[in-house]
Amino acid sequence: MSLEENIRKAKEAIAAAAREVGRDPAEITLVAATKTQSDDTVRAAIAAGITVCGENRVQEMTAHLDADAYAGAGLHFIGHLQTNKVRQVVGRVDLIESVSSEHLLLAIEKEAAKLNLVQDVLLEVNIGGEETKSGVLPDQVETLFFRSLELPHVRLRGLMAIPPVAGADGNRAFFHEMYEIFVDIKQKMTDNKTDIDCLSMGMSGDYENAVREGATLVRLGTALFGPRPPMPRTM
What we know:
Elements lengths: L2 H18 L8 E5 L5 H9 L4 E4 L2 H9 L7 E4 L17 E5 L2 H14 L3 E7 L15 H8 L5 E8 L5 H4 L1 H16 L10 E3 L6 H6 L4 E4 L1 H4 L10
Parallel strand pairs: 1-2, 1-8, 2-3, 3-4, 4-5, 5-6, 6-7
């Protein structure tokens, strides 16, 4: 199918999954994971109805920004962010979804203070406790959550997770646990409950169950663009 058809199909699937559990489909945003895609493909996705793009790599993001490829859409950084590349991301994206440690959180605060702006972020949760993945463990979320509230140039918007590879149905328990953590944290907020509105989980192989379990952002790459092309050698 064409890119336009894939986007339409994904939106229909999101809406159907939402209605199945009594949710308003308007609560869920489809984030197009544009990793390895060309400027023209990014532009075509936006023309076909994508409102938010998500980038995994700083180099690709910078190149697309220089080409004005994201015009007409919001931009999230969804990949692993190294502290030495924070200055290339802060202030250039609407949301950093992958804040995986206090060290990174403080680096973002420092850079945002230099720019005199407030950067929206999500905390990445290592919901499966996998050694190969970044993110805070579930029992550490609350500590980092409240630490972020002390930082004037960071605005915490919620949580993000990449569950273990377990298939669409196998991941549902992890999605449910993430939703419970999200609700628990939000209930403990005192003065910024309205800021905590993002739960980013679900990718091409499991996004419908993520929606059923409360996701507000789903990050789709291959479901929209097909198999990824090889990375350019310059990257």
